[in-house]
Amino acid sequence: MIQINETKTKKAFRSLFNHEKRKNSDQVHTVWLMVATNDPVNVVKSSPRAIPLKHSLQTPGTRRCLFTKDPQDTYKDLLISKNIKGVHEVIGFSKLKKRYGSRDKMAALFSEYDAFLTDRRITHLLPKVLGKEFYKKRKEPMMVDLTASELQKEILRALRSTYMHFNYGSYYGIKIATTALNESQAFDNLMTGLPDIIKGVPGGLDNIRSLQIKTSESISFTIYEKSIQQDQEEEEEDEDEWEEY
Fold it and tell me: What stretches pass through the bilayer (predicted)?
């Protein structure tokens, strides 16, 4: 596990949130955890990884759309029968392809809802249908298991998670908080999510060069950086292992 200096990290969050407060803006911004790796990542196939957080990134009034298998009425009826909260529209896969097939209509759908969920059984089919915009702007649908016995808990689990799909490059951002939370809640989310985030980085702990937090409009605050000394120690350990042979 990465040894995070909690005092330094809390100070970084305080500085970041103070920076946002000074702008006197009511707009909610995403707080990103930026992961830099030693070696570039290049994974041919991978699925988004859910990272449970202590505090949800969703704000009151968030409008959510759920993509389902066909027929969509089956799942609409399921949500109604179980009195499921947190979903405002259900769109079946066939309807998604037919009604929102053009770029303009897909863009309208993208703008109409604040967040999207999807039946995990059709997750792999969505990139070709939704297009690059959903994924480029990090509005990719959150996976849910619609066969779960406690469906409301499953929906809430998804809404209280962030997602990472680190399959290419050497620098990747993960939504870890928003400025609608406070600095203490943002810190909680980091510490809660970090173990799963490390597992989700190809190469794991050994491939992590640094961790930083930032918003899209702020400077980056470094909360972890692998030192030259650590590199030297690891190289010495490798040499010792080879000497045994």
Answer: none
Which residue in the block uniquely carries the two structure tokens 């009511």?
26
Which tokens belong to 157?
């689990």
Same domain, residue pair 146 and 96: yes
- CA–CA dist 223, 216 (Å, integer): 17
Burial level of 209, CB count in 10 A (0-12/13-18/19+)? middle
pLDDT tens digits for range 45-85: 667 889 999 999 998 889 999 999 999 999 999 999 999 99
Q: In whole angstroms, how far apart are CA 121 and each of 95, 117, 140, 146, 178? A: 16, 12, 15, 9, 29
- 113, with CB counted inside 10 A (0-12, 13-18, 19+), is middle
Domain co-membership, 152 together with 79: yes
Number of domains comprising the chain: 2
Same domain flag for 171 and 52: yes
**Are 63 and 43 in the same domain?**
no
pLDDT (tens digit per residue) in 136-148: 888 889 999 999 9
